[in-house]
Structures are given as structure tokens and as C-alpha cells.
Amino acid sequence: MNGWFITGTDTGVGKTFFTAAWTRELRRRGLPALALKPIACGDRSDAEFFAKANDETLSLNEINPVFLAPPLSPYAACVVEDRPFDLCSLHENVRAVAARFPGPFLIEGVGGWLVPITRNYTVGDWARDLSLPVCVVARAGLGTLNHTLLTIESIRRSGLDICGLVLNFHQTPPDLATQTNPALLEDLSGLPVFCFHHAADLQELPEWLQP
């Protein structure tokens, strides 16, 4: 596969909105990019959002082959539903889509980097099996330094490459933390930082967000 694995410093940091906007921009440039949400918990709204970003190229089940009704981590949702998580099915579905389309593929994880998919298999383990460079999405405001640096440390420990950081400024107060965090994170992490306010920002797509 070619593409990226998109993870976040937490749930609700804007991974889906950014990934959909990124997919649309790549497709606008003539690239057959496809966004995938292989695991969803609680509802399938993220996958439905991706279906539109993909110009309806894939069915909902191709975008999201694994759906768990409880709004929990995959492992907790499986415990509540009293059923095992089918890792083989997860991998087979992603491979099947990759065999039919050239990509690039934008694969969004579920929650943060260490969210458990099974008791012994995390989002990070899944990303390592996919062997894609990782794009980290984080909130732009106060508190993001700790969450982002911990996430970066864990990803680097896994041996995967991080292409860069996306700071989501949506509904973030324009305070001193928000103003200083981009430069601080770039300095402390040594990674490029993209400041994402709205979809139009992606018209000036940095090189590290291009195939």
C-alpha cells in the first residue's frame, strides 16, 4: 500500500474532518486518493463522511468493514458485545481494497495511538502492520504539548516514520498557548507542523502531505 496512517492525540481532535479535506484536495489535483475508516465504534458517521470525500468510489462496508455499536474502544466494545475482534477480517478487507485501487490511501485509526483493539493489540500495532508513514492530528490549544509529545515518543518507539503534525485550530480560543504551540512543537519534535483552520488551507498543501 501507499499512503498514510492518520492517528490522533485523543478522540475528537479532528482526524476525520482533516482526513476528508485532505482526500478531497488530493482528488482535486487528479490523484485517486481514498480515505478509509476500517474500524468504527458508536456510529458510522465518519465512514459516511469519507464516502462523500471519496466521490462514492467505495461502499460504506469497504470504507468501514468493522463496526461496533458501543461508543467505546474496540476492545471494550467487543467485551460489552461479548464477541472477539476479527483481526484477520480487518487486514483482509484493507488488502482487498488496496488490490483494486492504486491509492494513495488515507487510513484513519480509531481514537489515539495506544487505544486497544484487542487486549494485546493496539492501534499502534495495527499501524505497524500496515507499515505506512504516520500523520499525527492534535488540538492546537492548551494541553496539546504533553499529549502530542507523548504520542510522538510512542510512535517513534514503534519504529514508524512520522511525516508531520497537523494542529487543528477549529473551535480553539486564540490565546497565548494557541499562538505559541505550533513553533514549540516544531522545535521540540523536529517535525513539520501544518496549521489547519479550514479546508481551504489545504490548497497550499505542504510537500510532506503529498504522495
CATH topology category name: Rossmann fold
The CATH architecture can be given as 3-Layer(aba) Sandwich
Total domain units:
1
Q: Numbering strands along the chain, what is their spatial order in the largest sheet?
A: 2-5-1-8-9-10
Mean pLDDT: 96
Content of β-strand: 15-25%
Count of DSSP H/I helices: 8
Form type: globular
Report on the structure:
- By secondary structure, the protein is α/β, with parallel strands linked by helices.
- The protein has one domain: Rossmann fold (3-Layer(aba) Sandwich), CATH 3.40.50.300.
- It is built from eight helices and ten strands.
- A hairpin with a 2-residue loop joins strand 6 and strand 7 (121-122).
- Helix 1 (15-28) packs parallel to helix 2 (45-53) and helix 7 (144-158) runs parallel beside helix 8 (176-189).
- It is globular and about 45 Å long.
What is this structure, in a nutshell?
Helices cover 41% and strands 21% of the residues.
State the main characteristics.
211 residues; alpha/beta; six-stranded parallel β-sheet; 8 helices; 10 strands
How are the SSEs placed, and which strands pair?
Layout: E1 3-8, H1 15-28, E2 34-36, E3 39-41, H2 45-53, H3 60-63, E4 66-68, H4 74-81, H5 87-100, E5 105-112, E6 116-118, E7 121-122, H6 123-130, E8 134-139, H7 144-158, E9 162-168, H8 176-189, E10 193-196
Parallel strand pairs: 1-5, 1-8, 2-5, 3-4, 8-9, 9-10
Antiparallel strand pairs: 6-7
Helix pairs in contact: 1-2, 7-8
